[in-house]
Protein backbone atom coordinates (compact mmCIF):
# COMPACT_ATOMS: atom_id res chain seq x y z
CA UNK A 1 0.00 0.00 0.00
CA UNK A 2 3.03 2.26 -0.18
CA UNK A 3 3.25 2.78 3.57
CA UNK A 4 6.35 1.91 5.52
CA UNK A 5 5.39 -0.18 8.52
CA UNK A 6 7.10 0.40 11.84
CA UNK A 7 8.82 -2.53 13.52
CA UNK A 8 7.29 -3.89 16.67
CA UNK A 9 8.85 -7.23 17.55
CA UNK A 10 8.62 -9.27 20.69
CA UNK A 11 12.22 -8.41 21.49
CA UNK A 12 11.36 -4.73 21.49
CA UNK A 13 8.41 -5.39 23.78
CA UNK A 14 10.56 -7.22 26.30
CA UNK A 15 13.26 -4.58 26.25
CA UNK A 16 10.61 -1.86 26.67
CA UNK A 17 9.43 -3.44 29.91
CA UNK A 18 12.90 -3.87 31.37
CA UNK A 19 14.69 -0.72 30.26
CA UNK A 20 12.12 2.01 30.69
CA UNK A 21 14.30 3.92 33.13
CA UNK A 22 17.29 3.87 30.75
CA UNK A 23 15.22 5.05 27.79
CA UNK A 24 15.07 8.58 29.16
CA UNK A 25 17.09 10.92 26.94
CA UNK A 26 18.28 14.00 28.87
CA UNK A 27 19.08 15.86 25.66
CA UNK A 28 16.36 14.84 23.24
CA UNK A 29 17.00 17.75 20.87
CA UNK A 30 20.59 16.64 20.28
CA UNK A 31 19.52 13.05 19.78
CA UNK A 32 16.81 14.20 17.39
CA UNK A 33 19.37 15.86 15.11
CA UNK A 34 21.14 12.51 14.64
CA UNK A 35 18.07 10.43 13.85
CA UNK A 36 15.95 9.94 10.76
CA UNK A 37 12.22 10.49 10.54
CA UNK A 38 9.74 8.02 12.06
CA UNK A 39 12.38 7.12 14.66
CA UNK A 40 11.39 6.27 18.22
CA UNK A 41 13.02 9.14 20.08
CA UNK A 42 11.93 8.37 23.60
CA UNK A 43 9.77 6.10 25.69
CA UNK A 44 8.90 6.13 29.37
CA UNK A 45 6.21 4.84 31.66
CA UNK A 46 2.91 6.68 31.81
CA UNK A 47 3.58 7.50 35.46
CA UNK A 48 6.89 9.19 34.65
CA UNK A 49 5.24 11.03 31.79
CA UNK A 50 2.69 12.52 34.19
CA UNK A 51 5.46 13.33 36.69
CA UNK A 52 7.29 15.67 34.32
CA UNK A 53 8.56 13.72 31.33
CA UNK A 54 5.89 15.33 29.16
CA UNK A 55 7.38 18.79 29.77
CA UNK A 56 10.94 17.62 29.07
CA UNK A 57 9.82 15.90 25.86
CA UNK A 58 8.15 19.02 24.45
CA UNK A 59 4.55 18.16 25.44
CA UNK A 60 3.90 20.51 28.38
CA UNK A 61 0.75 19.68 30.29
CA UNK A 62 -0.38 17.01 27.79
CA UNK A 63 -2.39 14.20 29.38
CA UNK A 64 -2.59 10.76 27.80
CA UNK A 65 -4.95 9.14 30.28
CA UNK A 66 -8.52 9.83 31.35
CA UNK A 67 -10.71 7.66 33.57
CA UNK A 68 -13.90 9.23 32.25
CA UNK A 69 -16.45 7.27 30.25
CA UNK A 70 -17.77 8.28 26.85
CA UNK A 71 -21.48 9.24 26.87
CA UNK A 72 -21.19 9.99 30.61
CA UNK A 73 -18.20 12.12 31.56
CA UNK A 74 -16.70 12.84 28.13
CA UNK A 75 -17.66 12.84 24.47
CA UNK A 76 -15.67 11.70 21.45
CA UNK A 77 -14.70 15.33 20.79
CA UNK A 78 -14.29 16.75 24.30
CA UNK A 79 -12.58 15.43 27.43
CA UNK A 80 -13.70 17.08 30.66
CA UNK A 81 -10.66 16.14 32.77
CA UNK A 82 -8.26 16.94 29.92
CA UNK A 83 -9.63 20.45 29.66
CA UNK A 84 -9.41 20.95 33.42
CA UNK A 85 -12.64 22.97 33.51
CA UNK A 86 -14.73 20.78 35.76
CA UNK A 87 -14.30 19.89 39.41
CA UNK A 88 -17.20 17.76 40.54
CA UNK A 89 -17.45 14.45 42.32
CA UNK A 90 -17.83 11.75 39.68
CA UNK A 91 -19.99 9.68 41.98
CA UNK A 92 -22.36 12.55 42.73
CA UNK A 93 -24.86 14.47 40.65
CA UNK A 94 -25.21 18.23 40.46
CA UNK A 95 -28.94 17.89 39.89
CA UNK A 96 -29.90 14.84 41.90
CA UNK A 97 -33.57 15.15 40.99
CA UNK A 98 -32.94 14.88 37.24
CA UNK A 99 -33.12 11.55 35.52
CA UNK A 100 -29.68 10.34 34.50
CA UNK A 101 -29.01 10.15 30.78
CA UNK A 102 -26.15 10.07 28.32
CA UNK A 103 -23.57 12.86 28.68
CA UNK A 104 -25.22 13.74 32.01
CA UNK A 105 -22.16 15.04 33.89
CA UNK A 106 -20.90 17.03 30.92
CA UNK A 107 -24.34 18.48 30.19
CA UNK A 108 -24.93 19.41 33.82
CA UNK A 109 -21.61 21.23 34.06
CA UNK A 110 -22.21 23.44 31.03
CA UNK A 111 -25.87 24.03 31.83
CA UNK A 112 -25.14 24.98 35.43
CA UNK A 113 -22.00 27.09 34.87
CA UNK A 114 -22.18 28.57 31.36
CA UNK A 115 -25.76 28.76 30.07
CA UNK A 116 -27.73 31.88 31.14
CA UNK A 117 -30.33 31.04 33.77
CA UNK A 118 -33.12 32.59 31.70
CA UNK A 119 -32.44 30.20 28.84
CA UNK A 120 -32.40 27.06 30.96
CA UNK A 121 -35.23 27.86 33.39
CA UNK A 122 -37.63 30.02 31.35
CA UNK A 123 -36.95 29.08 27.73
CA UNK A 124 -36.33 25.40 28.64
CA UNK A 125 -33.00 24.99 26.84
CA UNK A 126 -31.13 21.86 27.91
CA UNK A 127 -27.52 21.05 27.09
CA UNK A 128 -27.09 17.59 25.57
CA UNK A 129 -23.35 17.39 24.84
CA UNK A 130 -20.31 19.06 23.27
CA UNK A 131 -20.17 18.78 19.47
CA UNK A 132 -16.71 20.28 18.96
CA UNK A 133 -14.23 22.76 20.39
CA UNK A 134 -11.11 24.62 19.29
CA UNK A 135 -8.86 26.64 21.57
CA UNK A 136 -11.44 28.82 23.35
CA UNK A 137 -14.68 28.16 21.45
CA UNK A 138 -17.08 25.34 22.30
CA UNK A 139 -20.11 24.28 20.24
CA UNK A 140 -22.84 22.74 22.41
CA UNK A 141 -25.71 20.52 21.34
CA UNK A 142 -28.82 22.06 22.91
CA UNK A 143 -32.40 20.81 22.81
CA UNK A 144 -35.66 22.66 23.28
CA UNK A 145 -39.11 21.13 22.80
CA UNK A 146 -37.64 18.07 21.02
CA UNK A 147 -35.69 20.27 18.57
CA UNK A 148 -31.92 20.20 18.24
CA UNK A 149 -29.92 23.41 17.92
CA UNK A 150 -26.43 24.55 18.76
CA UNK A 151 -24.94 27.04 21.20
CA UNK A 152 -21.62 28.86 20.93
CA UNK A 153 -19.56 29.42 24.08
CA UNK A 154 -16.30 31.30 24.68
CA UNK A 155 -14.50 29.61 27.57
CA UNK A 156 -11.80 32.29 27.91
CA UNK A 157 -14.28 34.98 28.90
CA UNK A 158 -17.02 32.58 30.03
CA UNK A 159 -19.56 34.14 27.69
CA UNK A 160 -22.45 32.52 25.88
CA UNK A 161 -22.38 33.86 22.30
CA UNK A 162 -25.76 32.71 21.00
CA UNK A 163 -27.83 29.97 19.33
CA UNK A 164 -27.66 28.75 15.74
CA UNK A 165 -28.69 25.85 13.51
CA UNK A 166 -32.20 25.05 14.73
CA UNK A 167 -33.38 21.67 13.43
CA UNK A 168 -36.85 20.25 12.97
CA UNK A 169 -36.07 17.13 15.04
CA UNK A 170 -33.93 16.20 18.02
CA UNK A 171 -30.83 14.20 17.12
CA UNK A 172 -28.87 11.85 19.31
CA UNK A 173 -25.68 13.59 20.43
CA UNK A 174 -23.44 10.66 19.52
CA UNK A 175 -24.74 10.82 15.94
CA UNK A 176 -23.61 14.44 15.40
CA UNK A 177 -20.06 15.25 14.30
CA UNK A 178 -18.71 18.77 14.06
CA UNK A 179 -15.49 20.75 13.58
CA UNK A 180 -14.53 24.41 13.92
CA UNK A 181 -12.46 26.02 11.17
CA UNK A 182 -8.87 27.12 11.94
CA UNK A 183 -9.87 30.81 11.85
CA UNK A 184 -12.86 30.00 14.11
CA UNK A 185 -15.35 31.68 11.78
CA UNK A 186 -17.09 28.54 10.46
CA UNK A 187 -18.53 25.35 11.87
CA UNK A 188 -19.15 22.24 9.77
CA UNK A 189 -21.61 19.72 11.27
CA UNK A 190 -22.49 16.29 9.97
CA UNK A 191 -26.07 15.05 10.47
CA UNK A 192 -27.10 11.39 10.28
CA UNK A 193 -29.38 9.80 7.71
CA UNK A 194 -32.95 10.59 8.61
CA UNK A 195 -36.20 10.37 6.68
CA UNK A 196 -37.07 10.17 2.97
CA UNK A 197 -36.06 13.78 2.28
CA UNK A 198 -32.39 12.91 2.10
CA UNK A 199 -32.89 9.50 0.49
CA UNK A 200 -30.92 7.61 3.12
CA UNK A 201 -27.73 9.68 2.89
CA UNK A 202 -25.90 11.91 5.34
CA UNK A 203 -25.67 15.67 4.90
CA UNK A 204 -23.45 18.49 6.14
CA UNK A 205 -24.26 22.04 7.25
CA UNK A 206 -21.71 24.86 7.09
CA UNK A 207 -22.50 27.72 9.51
CA UNK A 208 -21.15 31.26 9.79
CA UNK A 209 -20.42 31.78 13.50
CA UNK A 210 -20.52 35.59 13.21
CA UNK A 211 -24.03 35.79 11.74
CA UNK A 212 -25.18 32.36 13.09
CA UNK A 213 -26.57 31.66 9.60
CA UNK A 214 -26.47 28.59 7.39
CA UNK A 215 -24.03 29.11 4.49
CA UNK A 216 -24.24 25.80 2.71
CA UNK A 217 -26.02 22.45 2.85
CA UNK A 218 -24.09 19.54 1.35
CA UNK A 219 -26.03 16.37 0.53
CA UNK A 220 -23.72 13.39 0.08
CA UNK A 221 -23.87 10.24 -2.01
CA UNK A 222 -21.53 8.55 0.48
CA UNK A 223 -21.26 8.44 4.26
CA UNK A 224 -18.90 10.59 6.32
CA UNK A 225 -18.23 10.09 10.02
CA UNK A 226 -14.89 11.89 10.32
CA UNK A 227 -13.48 15.04 8.76
CA UNK A 228 -11.12 17.82 9.83
CA UNK A 229 -10.09 21.27 8.59
CA UNK A 230 -6.66 21.89 7.08
CA UNK A 231 -4.90 24.34 9.47
CA UNK A 232 -3.14 26.06 6.54
CA UNK A 233 -6.42 27.44 5.20
CA UNK A 234 -9.18 29.54 6.71
CA UNK A 235 -12.12 27.16 6.27
CA UNK A 236 -12.15 26.08 2.62
CA UNK A 237 -10.29 22.75 2.75
CA UNK A 238 -11.04 19.62 4.76
CA UNK A 239 -9.81 16.05 4.89
CA UNK A 240 -12.76 13.64 4.61
CA UNK A 241 -12.92 9.90 5.33
CA UNK A 242 -15.51 8.55 2.87
CA UNK A 243 -17.43 5.27 3.12
CA UNK A 244 -19.30 4.52 -0.12
CA UNK A 245 -22.82 3.17 0.21
CA UNK A 246 -22.46 0.69 -2.63
CA UNK A 247 -20.08 -2.11 -1.73
CA UNK A 248 -17.25 -1.68 0.75
CA UNK A 249 -15.22 1.05 -0.92
CA UNK A 250 -13.64 3.89 1.00
CA UNK A 251 -11.21 6.72 0.37
CA UNK A 252 -9.43 9.59 2.09
CA UNK A 253 -10.15 12.80 0.18
CA UNK A 254 -8.90 16.37 0.43
CA UNK A 255 -11.92 18.51 -0.43
CA UNK A 256 -12.54 22.18 -1.25
CA UNK A 257 -15.46 23.17 0.94
CA UNK A 258 -16.88 25.86 -1.35
CA UNK A 259 -17.38 23.58 -4.37
CA UNK A 260 -17.09 20.28 -2.47
CA UNK A 261 -14.72 18.97 -5.13
CA UNK A 262 -11.84 16.64 -4.27
CA UNK A 263 -8.35 17.98 -4.93
CA UNK A 264 -6.68 14.68 -3.95
CA UNK A 265 -7.93 11.14 -3.31
CA UNK A 266 -6.42 8.02 -1.79
CA UNK A 267 -8.58 4.96 -2.42
CA UNK A 268 -6.08 2.71 -0.63
CA UNK A 269 -5.95 4.47 2.72
CA UNK A 270 -6.07 2.24 5.81
CA UNK A 271 -6.09 -1.05 3.95
CA UNK A 272 -6.29 -3.12 7.13
CA UNK A 273 -10.06 -2.45 7.30
CA UNK A 274 -12.70 -2.67 4.54
CA UNK A 275 -14.43 0.54 5.70
CA UNK A 276 -13.63 3.51 7.90
CA UNK A 277 -16.74 3.24 10.06
CA UNK A 278 -16.78 2.08 12.82
CA UNK A 279 -13.03 1.43 13.03
CA UNK A 280 -11.86 5.01 12.46
CA UNK A 281 -11.97 6.84 15.80
CA UNK A 282 -10.08 10.03 15.04
CA UNK A 283 -8.92 12.06 12.04
CA UNK A 284 -6.73 15.14 12.50
CA UNK A 285 -3.99 17.23 10.91
CA UNK A 286 -0.53 17.82 12.30
CA UNK A 287 0.20 21.35 13.51
CA UNK A 288 1.73 22.47 10.21
CA UNK A 289 -0.89 20.73 8.05
CA UNK A 290 1.67 18.52 6.30
CA UNK A 291 0.17 15.26 7.56
CA UNK A 292 -3.27 13.74 8.12
CA UNK A 293 -3.33 11.34 11.06
CA UNK A 294 -5.98 8.58 11.17
CA UNK A 295 -6.42 6.42 14.28
CA UNK A 296 -8.18 3.06 13.84
CA UNK A 297 -9.20 0.64 16.62
CA UNK A 298 -10.95 -2.67 16.98
CA UNK A 299 -14.62 -2.20 17.74
CA UNK A 300 -15.27 -4.94 20.28
CA UNK A 301 -16.28 -3.84 23.77
CA UNK A 302 -13.42 -4.51 26.18
CA UNK A 303 -15.23 -3.85 29.48
CA UNK A 304 -16.14 -7.49 30.11
CA UNK A 305 -12.89 -8.91 28.73
CA UNK A 306 -10.66 -6.89 31.08
CA UNK A 307 -12.11 -8.76 34.07
CA UNK A 308 -10.67 -12.03 32.74
CA UNK A 309 -7.24 -13.27 33.77
CA UNK A 310 -5.87 -13.76 30.24
CA UNK A 311 -7.54 -10.86 28.50
CA UNK A 312 -6.07 -9.59 25.26
CA UNK A 313 -5.44 -6.00 24.22
CA UNK A 314 -7.27 -4.34 21.36
CA UNK A 315 -5.45 -3.71 18.11
CA UNK A 316 -4.78 -0.07 17.26
CA UNK A 317 -3.12 1.56 14.28
CA UNK A 318 -2.02 5.05 13.27
CA UNK A 319 -1.96 5.89 9.55
CA UNK A 320 -0.04 8.97 8.46
CA UNK A 321 -0.96 10.48 5.08
CA UNK A 322 0.41 13.39 3.09
CA UNK A 323 -1.57 16.57 3.69
CA UNK A 324 -1.31 17.64 0.03
CA UNK A 325 -1.71 14.36 -1.89
CA UNK A 326 -3.51 12.10 0.68
CA UNK A 327 -0.87 9.42 -0.05
CA UNK A 328 -0.28 7.00 2.82
CA UNK A 329 3.23 7.53 4.19
CA UNK A 330 3.56 5.50 7.37
CA UNK A 331 1.75 2.94 9.49
CA UNK A 332 2.30 2.34 13.22
CA UNK A 333 0.49 -0.59 14.89
CA UNK A 334 0.16 -0.68 18.68
CA UNK A 335 -2.06 -2.22 21.36
CA UNK A 336 -4.02 -0.92 24.35
CA UNK A 337 -5.92 -2.53 27.21
CA UNK A 338 -8.89 -0.17 26.93
CA UNK A 339 -12.45 -0.28 25.65
CA UNK A 340 -12.81 1.61 22.35
CA UNK A 341 -16.55 2.01 22.91
CA UNK A 342 -16.61 3.39 26.45
CA UNK A 343 -13.18 4.79 27.38
CA UNK A 344 -12.33 8.43 26.70
CA UNK A 345 -10.54 8.94 23.34
CA UNK A 346 -7.65 10.65 25.18
CA UNK A 347 -6.44 7.13 26.00
CA UNK A 348 -5.68 6.23 22.38
CA UNK A 349 -5.44 9.46 20.35
CA UNK A 350 -1.93 10.63 19.39
CA UNK A 351 -0.74 14.07 20.48
CA UNK A 352 1.81 16.48 19.01
CA UNK A 353 4.61 18.45 20.60
CA UNK A 354 4.68 22.23 20.77
CA UNK A 355 7.21 22.36 17.93
CA UNK A 356 5.02 20.03 15.84
CA UNK A 357 7.96 17.75 15.05
CA UNK A 358 7.07 14.89 17.41
CA UNK A 359 4.09 12.61 17.94
CA UNK A 360 3.34 10.66 21.11
CA UNK A 361 0.88 7.94 22.08
CA UNK A 362 0.52 5.22 24.72
CA UNK A 363 1.21 1.55 24.05
CA UNK A 364 0.40 -1.23 26.53
CA UNK A 365 2.89 -4.09 26.83
CA UNK A 366 2.39 -7.27 28.89
CA UNK A 367 5.09 -7.61 31.52
CA UNK A 368 4.98 -10.71 33.74
CA UNK A 369 1.65 -10.53 35.59
CA UNK A 370 1.02 -6.84 34.94
CA UNK A 371 0.58 -4.48 32.02
CA UNK A 372 3.04 -1.66 31.45
CA UNK A 373 1.80 1.49 29.75
CA UNK A 374 4.62 3.12 27.81
CA UNK A 375 4.52 6.55 26.20
CA UNK A 376 6.35 6.47 22.87
CA UNK A 377 7.56 9.63 21.13
CA UNK A 378 8.24 9.50 17.38
CA UNK A 379 10.02 12.01 15.18
CA UNK A 380 7.89 13.34 12.32
CA UNK A 381 9.29 14.51 8.99
CA UNK A 382 9.63 18.26 8.74
CA UNK A 383 9.25 20.47 5.69
CA UNK A 384 12.43 21.11 3.70
CA UNK A 385 12.08 24.89 3.91
CA UNK A 386 14.45 26.86 6.12
CA UNK A 387 11.44 28.62 7.66
CA UNK A 388 9.99 25.37 8.94
CA UNK A 389 13.29 24.11 10.34
CA UNK A 390 13.89 27.40 12.15
CA UNK A 391 10.39 27.24 13.63
CA UNK A 392 11.07 23.77 15.05
CA UNK A 393 14.33 24.89 16.68
CA UNK A 394 12.77 28.06 18.13
CA UNK A 395 9.79 26.21 19.60
CA UNK A 396 12.13 23.64 21.12
CA UNK A 397 13.97 26.48 22.88
CA UNK A 398 11.12 28.82 23.85
CA UNK A 399 7.65 28.25 25.25
CA UNK A 400 4.67 29.66 23.31
CA UNK A 401 4.31 32.31 26.04
CA UNK A 402 7.91 33.45 25.47
CA UNK A 403 7.44 33.47 21.69
CA UNK A 404 4.63 36.01 21.94
CA UNK A 405 6.97 38.43 23.77
CA UNK A 406 9.88 38.13 21.32
CA UNK A 407 10.81 41.39 19.47
CA UNK A 408 9.52 40.06 16.14
CA UNK A 409 6.85 41.20 13.65
CA UNK A 410 3.37 39.91 14.45
CA UNK A 411 3.15 37.89 11.22
CA UNK A 412 6.36 36.09 12.12
CA UNK A 413 5.08 35.34 15.63
CA UNK A 414 1.84 34.00 14.11
CA UNK A 415 3.89 31.73 11.86
CA UNK A 416 5.92 30.42 14.80
CA UNK A 417 2.71 29.59 16.67
CA UNK A 418 1.25 27.78 13.62
CA UNK A 419 -1.04 30.72 12.88
CA UNK A 420 0.37 31.77 9.52
CA UNK A 421 -1.27 34.07 7.03
CA UNK A 422 -3.94 31.82 5.59
CA UNK A 423 -3.84 30.78 1.95
How many strands in all? 21
Low-confidence stretches: 6-27, 85-100
Annotation field: number of helices:
9
C-alpha geometry: globular
First-residue to last-residue Cα separation: 31 Å
| Strand arrangement, major sheet | 1-18-17-16-15
Mean pLDDT: 80
Q: Name the beta content range.
A: 25-35%
Instruction: Please describe the biggest sheet, giving its number of strands, its sense, and whether it closes into a barrel.
Output: 5 strands, mixed
Helix content: 10-25%
Assembly level: single chain
Secondary structure category: alpha+beta
Structural overview:
The chain is of the alpha+beta class and 423 residues long. 17% of the residues lie in helices and 34% in strands. The protein is built from 9 helices and 21 strands. The protein has helices spanning 10-18, 28-33, 46-56, 80-83, 104-113, 117-122, 386-397, 400-404, 410-416, and strands at residues 4-5, 40-45, 126-134, 137-144, 147-154, 159-164, 177-180, 186-191, 203-208, 213-219, 222-229, 237-244, 250-256, 261-266, 280-285, 291-297, 314-322, 328-336, 351-352, 358-367, 370-379. The strands form 5 sheets. Strands 1-18-17-16-15 form a 5-stranded mixed β-sheet, with no helix packed on it. The longest helix has 12 residues, at 386-397. The protein is globular and about 55 Å long. The protein starts with a strand and ends in a 7-residue tail after the last helix.
